């Protein structure tokens, strides 16, 4: 029934947009003005750039494209075009001041609410325009994660707090799970808010492999460090070896040795590195070197998705490891509910049919794979979302982190970054091919 569909869609669009804006507001109001306009790292934009960029993308897609409205402030489009200005240059642009950026984003949002209310869409039915609303809610949440990374890089006292995840008994289950070989369905053609790079669904043959039951922990990673892993060229890709030598990298980002123990700075607070938590802030080269040291390798993207979505009982791919239900707090650590990953072995209710845990949430997981289009890929709605990033320069990350909102997280969701990047909330798990 069209009226019911339209009403359900309107509710979901409203809820996800409001949730995203609450988070944006938190991230841009917990520090004073100078911290909004400062550049905390050359890798990141000033927070106030993200804020106005969120509003500007919303204006371009929902007000101009979907509703057919005139531009409110066409003169600022180029300042907030991510392709015109690399992040390092953004502080020198004539950015809107925090007060102006806030009122611009709020003005856009008010008009979007009117559009949703009246369903005044430009030549499209409500449900057909739905994707644009989902895309914009995901876009805002992705920039919220980016802003949380900026907060982690910012020096100075704590500005954000959240309760820690519940403690769990040390995980004593099997260290790895066997995923039997055979085809499975990768990607999706039916998930309404899936982005272009997740489409279309297609069959993939995947040989038998074993995959870690949980992400690699700090304790396991420390064993690699203590064994001289960072000083042994055998474990490293040549480009990675050159990179860690050049930049004197000896441990994950934000770690510091203190006698026999490791400390790390986390959102303005220094703590002892918790042994049973998934390792965080490692680059692809570090993940790859650890895996080789451990006599293993990173899973391919197809292996990761098969472990996360294939239900061997029905030869069917589910939306999430636990089935088709939307993520709930008992399934996964998502949405910045906590400001850290949960201990390895958490969320038994979120495990896959074969018993793999924490595939969704906690830490983004590096895979062995380059970011490439699926067979039948079509860029939508713009080439700059995914297509311009395809190729060997970017590695795929899967599963989302504690900083990812459920609206931007699915078993099919693909993230990508350069193999040297580690300011992102990245960890990994390892795999090995099964003997044939
Ligand atoms: C998918 C996280 C790599 O942040 O560059 C934000 C998402 N695209 N605005 C990014 C995105 C446009 C993108 N990543
Ligand atoms: Fe963006």
Automatic annotation (TrEMBL):
Family membership: Belongs to the EgtB family.
Enzyme class: oxidoreductase
Cofactor(s), names only, from the UniProt record: Fe(2+)
Designated name of the protein: Hercynine oxygenase
DinB-like domain location: 17-147
Ranges for domain Sulfatase-modifying factor enzyme-like: 173-432
Binding-site list for Fe cation: 53, 139, 143
Oxidoreductase among keywords: yes
Basic and acidic residues: compositionally biased ranges: 304-318
Biological or metabolic pathway of the protein: Amino-acid biosynthesis; ergothioneine biosynthesis
Residues binding gamma-L-glutamyl-L-cysteine: 87-90, 417, 421
Protein role: Catalyzes the oxidative sulfurization of hercynine (N-alpha,N-alpha,N-alpha-trimethyl-L-histidine) into hercynyl-gamma-L-glutamyl-L-cysteine sulfoxide, a step in the biosynthesis pathway of ergothioneine.
Record InterPro entries: CTDL_fold, DinB-like, DinB/YfiT-like, EgtB, EgtB_Actinobacteria, Sulfatase_Mod_Factor_Kinase, SUMF_dom, SUMF_sf
Keywords from the UniProt entry: Iron, Metal-binding, Monooxygenase, Oxidoreductase
Ranges where the record places region Disordered: 304-351
Keyword Iron found: yes
Catalytic activity: gamma-L-glutamyl-L-cysteine + hercynine + O2 = gamma-L-glutamyl-hercynylcysteine S-oxide + H2O
SUPFAM superfamilies, sorted: C-type lectin-like (SSF56436), DinB/YfiT-like putative metalloenzymes (SSF109854)
Domain of life according to the entry: Bacteria
Annotated EC: 1.14.99.50
């Amino acid at each position: 029934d069209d009226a019911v569909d339209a009403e359900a869609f309107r509710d979901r669009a409203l809820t996800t947009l409001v949730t995203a804006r609450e988070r944006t507001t938190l991230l841009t109001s917990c520090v004073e003005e100078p911290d909004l306009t400062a550049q905390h790292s050359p890798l990141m934009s000033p927070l106030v750039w993200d804020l106005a960029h969120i509003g500007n993308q919303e204006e371009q897609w929902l007000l101009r494209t979907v509703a057919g409205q005139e531009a409110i402030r066409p003169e600022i489009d180029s300042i907030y075009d991510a392709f015109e200005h690399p992040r390092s240059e953004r502080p020198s642009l004539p950015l809107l001041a925090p007060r102006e950026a806030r009122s611009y984003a709020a003005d856009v949002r008010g008009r979007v609410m009117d559009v949703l209310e009246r369903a005044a869409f430009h030549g499209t039915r409500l449900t057909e325009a739905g994707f644009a609303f989902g895309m914009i809610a995901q876009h805002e949440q992705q920039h919220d994660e980016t802003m949380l990374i900026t907060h982690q890089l910012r020096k100075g006292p704590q500005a954000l707090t959240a309760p820690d995840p519940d403690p769990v008994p040390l995980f004593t289950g099997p260290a790895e799970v066997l995923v039997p070989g055979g085809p499975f369905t990768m990607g999706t053609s039916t998930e309404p808010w899936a982005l272009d790079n997740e489409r279309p669904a297609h069959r993939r043959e995947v040989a038998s492999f074993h995959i870690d039951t949980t992400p690699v922990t700090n304790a396991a990673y420390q064993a690699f460090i203590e064994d001289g892993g960072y000083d042994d060229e055998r474990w490293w890709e040549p480009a990675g070896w050159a990179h860690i030598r050049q930049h004197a990298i000896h441990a994950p980002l934000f770690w510091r040795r203190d006698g026999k123990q490791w400390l790390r700075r986390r959102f303005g607070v220094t703590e002892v590195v918790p042994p049973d938590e998934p390792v965080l802030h490692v680059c692809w080269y570090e993940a790859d070197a650890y895996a080789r040291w451990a006599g293993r390798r990173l899973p391919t993207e197809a292996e990761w998705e098969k472990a996360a979505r294939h239900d061997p009982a029905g030869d069917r791919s589910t939306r999430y490891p636990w089935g088709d239900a939307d993520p709930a707090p008992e399934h996964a650590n998502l949405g910045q509910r906590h400001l850290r990953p949960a201990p390895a072995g958490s969320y038994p209710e979120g495990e896959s049919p074969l018993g793999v845990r924490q595939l969704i949430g906690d830490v983004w997981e590096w895979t062995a794979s380059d970011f490439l289009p699926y067979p039948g890929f079509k860029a939508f709605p713009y080439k700059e979302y995914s297509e311009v990033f395809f190729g060997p320069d970017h590695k795929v990350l899967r599963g989302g982190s504690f900083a990812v909102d459920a609206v931007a997280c699915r078993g099919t969701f693909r993230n990508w970054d350069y193999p040297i990047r580690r300011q992102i909330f990245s960890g990994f798990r390892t795999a090995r091919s099964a003997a044939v």
